[in-house]
Design goal:
By secondary structure, this protein is of the alpha/beta class. The protein is 34% helix and 23% strand. The chain contains 19 helices and 29 strands. It has an 8-stranded mixed beta sheet with strand order 3-10-9-8-5-4-11-23. This is NADH:ubiquinone reductase (non-electrogenic).
Length: 582
């Protein structure tokens, strides 16, 4: 059991009961008395909790969000020298890759969520959670402004302020409507557990409404027309789940609906699953066509009403599609609090917070951002080419030899990963082979390059730069990486382990974040899944479906959710999906 010193007990009392900020303390010293009186001055208009103390304090780390990035950070943080505060309107972690399965009852919503308090209570650290929403970040004063999402019966004390030493922003993103009229009012989204539950109720409602005796055949067809906007992994998986639900479960309960149901998938680009291998894209499109799922590529939505979706084709023709339920799954947008913060730190006209390779927000010293709300602003080699040359030219000769290039190649590849990627794509063993291309006819070990020749040799490496995808896999790895940095921050201050500082002296404290791709799945229905794994390995079919089952079961955040998900899959195999509306 964790024990607390007398100081910590008093400190907690002050934190939990702000009214004790006015305190009279009586000391007896050599028969005399000393009276001390303190009066805290909270920030005007807000209740201030957990002000950062000035002496004998732990560093305060405030984490915003309990999604993939935030939860991964909390699970991997092991250093007890931090006072951790977690603020999120969602008091649980959700395994979002299984949200499409929740929409049709393949998996229950309760099975993919784990209370965040279950996660943090297992940590031998001082961690507190607040169910509230952060609506403002004050980077200058190191404060965040929060609002409880339980507004009733709080005596007007819904808003409060939390101060921090380090801020970890992992708030995720919202669905991007592209400001298309009617989307917000008429479409369903699939970002949260609540969204999946609402879609499930709406699907059942559509079938029940279409069964009423006073409707025409045309009206029944409209109600049972399900339109999915967005041909990415989420939209494709939901279309597949819905198709299986209709053909495996609903036809048994209501045989007459099969001929009335229609599923349409709208995609603005030329193909669905554009981020996957071409073989997977072609297989998915052919499979959906065989199964009667109408895939319309090159169709851009321009307006959504309560009964029709207007699309613009490549030819410029605008057509209307009647529907009963529409699901919008076209990408992510910036949350208002993140947009306001971006303006505060000088990041304007961006879709996400820009960070450096160590996940620190550009323009700040103690704020980190990870997950869907952020993107790494990888520095270009050509921006630092002169500094790199000067650092490598140790004898100040004005030329770079093969030996000098080899001595810094590891630091260059670590600081600028596009260099390593460029060498692999060109099938070059090291940087000297690259430099030799600009000095044809010269032996490798005799190469001497001046600054202009060095620039010419590396002029194309920045073409390999790519932004990381907004996926759970990226967010989880970023959370684990940042937690590891916090665990070893004091040690790495004394003994830096990162690459050379080409624009300065010494080394960076940590190695920069590097994403390792483990592959991706696209469930296509009918117990078939497409898998694209490292090494350009593609697998499509029933074997990949079982691989999908094993991976998604093993990646659950707890044994409780792991067993619940497996039991849901087993129940579905034996009894089918639940079509009741609860």
């Amino acid at each position: 059991m964790k024990t607390f010193t007398l100081y910590e007990r008093f400190s907690r009392a002050f934190h939990d009961y702000p009214n004790l900020s006015k305190l009279v303390v009586l000391f007896t010293v050599s028969g005399g008395g000393l009276v001390a009186y303190s009066d805290a001055n909270p920030i005007s208009g807000y209740q201030s909790i957990f002000p950062v103390e000035t002496e004998n304090k732990k560093k305060r780390v405030v984490v915003l969000g309990t999604g993939w990035a935030g939860t991964s950070f909390l699970k991997n943080l092991k250093n007890p020298e931090y006072d951790v505060q977690v603020v999120s309107p969602r008091n649980y972690f959700a395994f979002t890759p299984l949200l499409p399965s929740v929409t049709c009852g393949t998996v229950e919503a309760r099975s993919i969520v784990e209370p965040i308090r279950n996660i943090i209570r297992k940590k031998n650290m001082d961690i507190r959670y607040w169910e509230a929403e952060c609506f403002k970040i004050d980077a200058q004063n190191k404060r965040i402004y929060c609002r409880s999402n339980k507004p009733s019966n709080l005596n007007g004390k819904q808003e409060f302020v939390v101060e921090y030493d380090y801020l970890v922003v992992a708030m995720g993103a919202r669905s991007n409507t592209f400001n298309i009229p009617g989307v917000e009012e008429n479409c369903k989204f699939l970002k949260e557990v609540e969204d999946a539950q609402e879609i499930r109720r709406s699907v059942i409602d559509c079938f029940e409404k279409a069964s009423l005796p006073n409707l025409s055949e045309e009206e029944r067809k409209r109600i049972l027309h399900f339109v999915i906007v967005g041909g990415g992994p989420t939209g494709v998986e939901f279309a597949a789940e819905l198709h299986d639900f209709v053909n495996e479960d609903m036809v048994k309960l209501n045989p007459g609906v099969k001929e009335l149901v229609k599923i349409t998938l709208l995609e603005a680009t030329d193909h669905i699953l554009g981020m996957f291998d071409k073989r997977i894209t072609e297989f998915a499109e052919k499979k959906f066509k065989r199964e009667g799922i109408d895939v319309r590529t090159g169709a851009m939505v321009v307006k959504v009403s309560d009964k029709e979706i207007s699309t613009k084709e490549r030819s410029g023709e605008v057509s209307s599609i009647p529907y009963g339920m529409a699901v919008w799954s076209t990408g992510i947008g910036t949350r208002p609090v993140i947009r306001d913060f971006m303006q505060q730190v000088g990041q304007i006209n961006r879709r996400a917070l820009a960070t450096d390779e160590w996940l620190r927000v550009d323009g700040t010293d103690n704020i980190y951002a990870l997950g869907d709300c952020a993107t790494i602003n990888q520095r270009k080699v050509m921006e630092d080419i002169s500094a790199i040359f000067n650092k490598a030219d140790k004898d100040n000769s004005g030329t770079l030899s093969a030996k000098e290039a080899r001595e810094v190649i590891m630091d260059i590849c670590e600081r600028y990963p596009q260099v390593d990627l460029y060498l692999k794509n060109k099938q070059l063993r090291d940087i000297v082979d690259l430099l030799k291309e600009s000095k044809k006819g010269v032996e490798k070990e005799s190469i001497e390059l001046n600054i202009e020749e060095f620039k010419s040799a590396l002029s194309q490496v920045d073409s390999q730069m790519k932004n990381l995808p907004a996926t759970a896999q990226v967010a989880a790895q970023q959370g684990a990486y940042l937690a590891d940095c916090f665990n070893r921050m004091e040690d790495c201050e004394k003994d830096p382990e990162g690459p050379l500082r080409f624009r300065g002296s010494g080394r960076h404290r940590f190695r920069p974040f590097r994403y390792k791709h483990f592959g991706q799945f696209a469930p296509l229905g009918g117990e078939q899944t497409a898998a694209q794994l490292p090494g350009d390995w593609v697998s499509i079919g029933h074997s990949s479906q079982w691989l999908w089952y094993s991976v998604y079961a093993s990646k659950q955040v707890s044994w409780r959710t792991r067993m619940l998900v497996i039991s849901d899959w087993t129940r579905r195999f034996i009894f089918g999906r639940d079509s009741s509306r609860i």
